[in-house]
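Action item from last week, closing it out:
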Amino acid sequence: MRRIYLQLHLLVAVLAATAILGRLISLPAPTLVVWRTLLAATGGALFATAVRGKSLLVPGRKILALLGVGALVGQIGRAHV
């Protein structure tokens, strides 16, 4: 139970820090979104491999399928803007 509370408090601290740092960072919004996404993906990958012990390797055919779905969703989202 203590571990869950520790994780919750860490999450609250991280979210508070991003709100405070948001005022101090002078990057354009799209650049900031790209960096935040990159950091979140890196952190998630590190968490999955270090803490959970799960591999993030994806077979070749699934990579192509995932890239295709991402491109399709990106184009649909772009058409509605």
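Closing note: The chain has a mean pLDDT of 82.
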